[in-house]
Amino acid sequence: MNGSWTRIATRVLLGVILAFAAPTAWAAPPVDRETHFRCYIVSQQTPQAATTVTLSDQFLSKVALTVDEPLQFCAPVSKNGEPILEPEEHLTMYAAAAPLVNHLSIATEDQFGPRILEAVGARVLLVPTQKLEVEGVPTDLDFPTKLNHSWCYEVNGAPVDLEVTLRDQFRTDTVGVGQPTLFCNPVEKVVGGVTTRIEERDVHLTCYDIKGPQRTRATHVLIENQFEQDTFTITSFELLCVPSEKKSFSPI
Fold first, then answer.
1. What tens digit of pLDDT does each residue of 45-87 get?
2. What does the alpha-carbon distance between residue 204 and residue 246 come to, in Å, rounded to a whole number?
3. How much is the CA Rg of the chain, to the nearest whole Å?
4. Where are the alpha helices (DSSP H) in 27-133?
């Protein structure tokens, strides 16, 4: 009996050792069901007066700057057949530059795997946006109340060098995913004494350059957000923004 129990205990111990020794596949972070975005260049819009905002995130605090014309409009996108769970979630990108005292090394994970990014300075603000109409046709989409405002930093890092299939409301195609260009923190925004707080503190975005067949037909989209109601003319796409986790960061 003692010999039998000894053999059983040995097998269990060996199984535990092998389980820890065996290589494991990289596991997707908990943000894997958050919205992905494909960002389209805004080629025409109605000029707006600049708005002064104060931004605070995990890297910079209480930075006052002005926001004026939109740069890109970001639509929810399906990547490789994944469902779009929150079709109302759109973002508008505005210039919002601010320097960092030191460059930062950021350890991140997203659906493309773990990555080390070097952040060199804040560049743009992503603002939750309601899409009201496309080419004059109402969309019946609500305002995205669960979506973060995000402050995005210019970054350098290893390219993905993979092809993915993207499907959004404007087109479906296969694109090459290249260099990371932006890393986006959830941000608290103050405008005119009104504070917009962070909705999901652990949800970040990493935006990658994407290359593929470009759109040649312009589309007119009526939008509304905390800065403006306007009709954007959008044409070519530029970025894929992927939900990410920030594991750590430190000055370089």
1. 999 889 999 999 999 999 999 999 999 999 999 999 999 999 9
2. 7
3. 22
4. none
CA gap 210, 201 in Å, rounded: 27
What's the full length of the chain, in residues?
Answer: 252
Residue 24 has pLDDT above 80, yes or no: no
DSSP 35: P
8 A C-beta contact, residue 94 and residue 227: yes
Amino acid at 192: G
**Overall number of domains in the chain:** 1
Residues spanned by the domain of 189: 2-251
Tokens 């890109």 identify what position? 72
Burial 20-45 (b: 16+ CB within 10 A, else e): eeeeeeeeebebeebbbbbbbbbeeb
What pTM, to 2 d.p., does this model score? 0.87
What is d(CA 170, CA 178) in angstroms, rounded to the nearest whole number? 21
pLDDT at 190: 97
